[in-house]
Write a structure and sequence with these properties.
About 45% of the residues are buried. With about 400 residues, the protein is α/β, with parallel strands linked by helices. It is about 35% helix and about 15% strand.
């Protein structure tokens, strides 16, 4: 069996999805996702010019050897662009192998450990009342967990993950389109004074059973993060995400010494070498890597296995930049992983997206159920993608009130 061709497509409804399709001489094809948010053309070009030519003639069943070929064969290793491209290839190869076996992908990992995997939605509000309305909306849909972000009184502009317009509260997703990054203003003191009271009111309103998550998005210094984590322990968050920049991993140790709040980190990590010490030393509770950015199923499965040895659970990244292909790959891992924790879920289930990526996966009462179709269980319509063109976009950038650049 040989790979005969591979094509890269860029486009999708309101997103520049980068989709890889690998064809074989037996008529079976596999799909992969190389979408790197706001850097999409880079992964597409890397695939087209450097990786796809090497794939032609290879045996797609040898996914381990092919992964090592690209990873070890690259003198300058890792990084989000390379690992997202490797990840797309790897996901597509696993798709092919499962289709050859006539089995859903999770069966190749060892079968299901659960029937449905708990997901969390993004609840957001321009103010507390708006946030409560957003949470109520998701609870009514059956979600058992929500990530909450709230506008801070006196903050001079939109802060991370929060719209200044109340009408966006139910389904707010940041719009990254534009020829320059938008600038957000951040005030740490206002944030630290206000947010603990938000958690207190939400616990009173929704009780102890609803799982509450919160993303600081790297905005605090280590001492500030430790103080904040200690103060909010009493509200029993499911996790506190990215309390301080991930590059300074010793900072996580400092937070751990002061608080028992569960810590989730890793969505910006690209490999096991970014997180092995955090896992082995029990400095985190949830690992947030993604199949795309962290090199595909082969590499992410290694991270999951390592995490399981140290009682660290999964909490894969699932922002809208992940197409239904990478979300399906993660869904199969979630079905299998004995140390599964939760899955971020923000794929837009619009008719346009469903037409581009048809599947029988389903979300019921806050649980994601993978289909039993062979492979990933997601297809791709090449005719549909012709409707879409690439649109330039950037993540926002963040400044402090005095104009100093800060962590987005």
């Amino acid at each position: 069996m040989k790979i005969t061709d591979a094509k890269v497509f860029v486009g999708g409804p309101k997103k520049n999805y980068v989709t890889l399709k690998i064809m074989t001489d037996q008529g079976i094809y596999g799909l992969g996702d190389a979408t790197l948010n706001n850097r999409e053309t880079l992964t597409a070009k890397y695939l087209q010019d450097y990786l796809v030519p090497c794939l032609i003639g290879m045996d797609p069943r040898r996914s381990e050897d092919i992964w090592q070929y690209f990873y070890r064969g690259a003198y300058f290793r890792r990084g989000p662009i390379a690992m997202a491209a490797f990840g797309a290839i790897d996901i597509a190869l696993w798709d092919i192998k499962a289709k050859l076996a006539g089995l859903p992908l999770y069966e190749l990992f060892g079968g299901k450990s659960r029937e449905g995997a708990m997901v969390y939605a993004h609840a957001t509000g321009a103010d507390l009342d708006d946030l409560i309305e957003s949470i109520e909306n998701y609870v009514a849909q059956g979600y058992k967990a929500v990530r909450l972000q709230c506008g801070i009184p006196g903050m001079p502009s939109e802060s991370y993950g929060v719209s200044s317009k109340k009408e966006n509260s139910k389904h707010f997703i940041t719009n990254f389109l534009g020829d320059k990054p938008k600038e957000e203003i951040w005030d740490t003191e206002k944030y630290l004074r206000y947010m603990p009271g938000v958690f207190e009111k939400l616990r009173v309103k929704f009780g102890p059973d609803l799982k509450l998550l919160h993303d600081v998005h790297h905005r605090l210094l280590p001492r500030e993060a430790a103080e904040f984590a200690k103060e909010i322990e009493q509200y029993k968050l499911f996790w506190l995400e990215d309390p301080t920049p991930a590059e300074d991993q010793e900072a996580i140790r400092y937070i751990r010494q002061h608080s028992t709040v569960p810590i989730a980190i890793g969505e910006v990590f690209n490999s096991i070498y970014d997180c092995n010490k955090l896992i082995e030393e029990n400095l985190i509770d949830f690992i947030r890597v993604a199949c795309t950015y962290a090199g595909g199923i082969t590499h992410v499965k290694r991270i999951v296995d390592l995490a399981g040895l140290h009682n660290v659970r999964t909490g894969f990244h699932g922002a809208p930049s992940h197409s239904p292909i990478s979300m399906a790959a993660q869904a199969h891992l979630n079905a299998w992983a004995p140390n599964f924790g939760i899955q971020e879920y923000l794929v837009l289930g619009t008719p346009e997206c469903d037409a581009l990526f048809p599947s029988k996966h389903k979300l019921v009462d806050g649980l994601f159920h993978v289909s039993d179709e062979p492979g990933l269980g997601v297809d791709f319509d090449e005719k549909e993608v012709e409707k879409y063109e690439y649109s330039l976009g950037f993540h926002p950038v963040t400044r402090l009130v005095d104009g100093t650049m800060w962590n987005y």
